Amino acid sequence: MASIIKRERNKNKPWAVRWRDASGHQREQAFRLKAEASAFKSKLEVDQNEGTFVDPRQSRDTFSEAAERWLERLPATPGTKRAYGSTLRNHVNPVLGDRLLRHVAQDRDAVADLVNVAMIGKSRQRREIARLIITGTLDDAVNAGRLPRHRCSGIRLAPGVHSTERKDFIFPTHKQLEAVAASLGQNLAPTIWLMRGTGLRIGEALAVRKDGFRDNGTVLRIQEQVRPDGYATAPMKHRKTGDYREIPVPAYLWEMIEGLPDGYLFRRDSGRFPIQRSYWQAFTKARVDAGIPDGFTAHSLRHAFASALLARNVPIHDVAKWLGHLSIDVTYRIYGHLVPSAWGRAREALEAEYEDWSESS
């Protein structure tokens, strides 16, 4: 348990919180006000119980700094280190390098997107190296006591764009999704239809506000996502504070949302949002109970959203904008196989043009 003490000799920060870390060492954090110390103590004890607490002084490293140290100590040949270093500098650091190590440790989606989306056109070996660099760096930090744990183990590599092993997306029936929504309970059931109907990520869905629906519920504006720990919101993925994106809203979704209270739709009376890890666990259980095959996750609801639009000839650049992809290349890598073939349309256009041209001669 943590305790609050008053240090008379320190006039600038007289209040301090003392606790023992996982290895039994005493730690201390000083504060100017007793209220600040009390708030820190409360959050520390909750995070310690959940296994998510990270000592701020032990986790100020950026991911790139920690990864470079891990690579220096790696027992490998010079050639292997060069290959790892190239992957780190050219593929991993541009996406994760400037982020704090403790933030990367909790952002499983960002790591999965890197190896399975941004790098999908690279060789499987290159993607395996990227995954190893990330998990090796995080494992090293956990073993050294700089992190309590991380959420990036066990990420599977999706088939590459040239692989003949590509698996079709899983599309549950409407009844199956209704069962999943019902299993999550009345308070969280709308998240299923938000992700299915607007392509939101989990964190974005949990941060939706009633006043984000505009123009009589036909447009949804989002500009934040819930942090994994559920304590607060943060800017959207790869975006800055104040950035937003707008997405068309199907009528059935607005009918579900219109009668809900104002403000954040999923924030609890305590002020906290649902913890994403707990949401994942509840969703997985509901998916199994509904008979949906393995491989389908809450993130797969984005696939259903995008696939439904592309199958009905909505331009892929519009779909990319609504999904929040930084580049349309990302959208093509994931959904290019669903875009109607342009070959037949091209032949028809060329033949029609030739007919008009030849008759005008």
Give the SSE map.
Blueprint: E1 3-6, E2 15-20, E3 26-31, H1 34-50, H2 63-73, H3 78-97, H4 101-106, H5 108-118, H6 124-143, H7 174-184, H8 189-198, H9 202-206, E4 213-214, E5 219-222, E6 224-226, E7 233-235, E8 245-248, H10 251-257, H11 276-289, H12 300-311, H13 316-323, H14 328-335, H15 343-359
Helix pairs in contact: 2-3, 2-6, 3-6, 7-8, 7-11, 8-12, 13-14
Fourth-level CATH superfamily of the largest domain: Intergrase catalytic core
Strand content: 5-15%
Kindly state the number of beta strands: 8
- Uncertain spans, ≥5 residues at pLDDT below 50? 162-168
Name of the top-level CATH class of the largest domain: Mainly Alpha
- Mean pLDDT across the residues is 84
Q: What can you tell me about this protein's structure?
A:
By secondary structure, this protein is mainly alpha-helical. It folds into 3 domains: about 5-55; about 65-145; about 175-340, hpI Integrase, Chain A (Orthogonal Bundle), CATH 1.10.443.10. Helix content is about 50%, strand content about 10%. It contains 15 helices and 8 strands. It has helices at about 35-50, 65-75, 80-95, 100-105, 110-120, 125-145, 175-185, 190-200, 200-205, 250-255, 275-290, 300-310, 315-325, 330-335, 345-360; strands at about 5, 15-20, 25-30, 215, 220, 225, 235, 245-250. It has a 3-stranded antiparallel sheet with strand order 1-2-3, covered by helices on one side. A hairpin with a 6-residue loop joins strand 6 and strand 7 (about 235). Helix 2 (about 65-75) runs antiparallel to helix 3 (about 80-95), helix 7 crosses helix 11 and helix 8 runs parallel beside helix 12. The N and C termini lie far apart (about 90 Å). Residues about 160-170 have low confidence and may be disordered.
